[in-house]
Amino acid sequence: MLDVLFEDKSLIVCVKPVGVLSAPEPGKRRNMPDLLKKQTRAYRIDIIHRLDQPVGGVMVYSKSSKVTPGLYKQMASHRIVKEYLAVVCGVPPQSQGTWEDWLLKDTARCKSRVVAPNTRGAKDASLSYRTLASVTDGDRTLSLVKVRLHTGRTHQIRVQFSSRRLPLLGDEKYGGAADERLKGLGLWSYHLAFRHPTTGRMVDESCPPPDVYPWNLFNAVDITMPTE
To answer: Is 57 in contact with 16 (CB distance < 8 Å)?
Structure first.
């Protein structure tokens, strides 16, 4: 049973479990639209945004053709607040800040990288962050970082932190250390806020990560602190 944070006739805000696909893929099972249709008996589930399979947390889906365009428009214009919690290997040199880069996606390798601004095909990427806490875990230091995305590029948080030698825990694709205690990546979609396309009211939902490693290393941390 999926955790539902908000639901009406036209949309649903829910929590995607780690390991479940946010959209159907050929030859793969357990995806959010199918699970939501089964659970809510909705006729349609439209995909508004995506989370990588190893990432869990808050997502919004449309159940109405009248609402989908409005959500798409807000997502494209970056008017949907998207905040994440990340566990990174190391400590950011500044406790908070804004990073702006240009990312180039390699579709064949399903990977992105930071490139020069004039690189053909590159797209701008911007985020703000605040370091909430750092702890010693064995022979390494891990930091809990709260991130607000201003753009939504492929693997954006993973790439921008990795390019500064702060890879996410468990993110072997971008230089992060593997850990058998970790299920998925050290990344969690914590908070979504947007204006309902039909009622005009704000929908503002958040969900903390599960009380398992590595999130339980930071149980005493106030994760509600603003990123900027």
So the answer is: yes
Q: Nearest CA to 117 among 134, 97, 102, 136?
A: 102
Catalytically annotated residue among 52, 101, 137, 179: 52
Has 52 been annotated as catalytic? yes
Phi, psi of 225 (to 5 degrees): -60, 140
pLDDT tens digits, one per residue of 71-88:
999 999 999 999 999 999
Residue 128, CA atoms < 13 Å, CB-side half-sphere:
9
pLDDT in tens, 11-65: 999 999 999 999 998 877 789 999 999 999 999 999 999 999 999 999 999 999 9
Residue with the two structure tokens 């995305």: 149
What topology does CATH give the domain 3-218?
Pseudouridine synthase (3.30.2350)
What are the φ/ψ torsions at residue 3 (nearest 5 degrees)? -75, 125
**Cα angle 171, 177, 180; round to 5:** 90
* Nearest C-alpha neighbor of 125 from the set 161, 92, 149: 149
**pTM exceeds 0.90:** yes
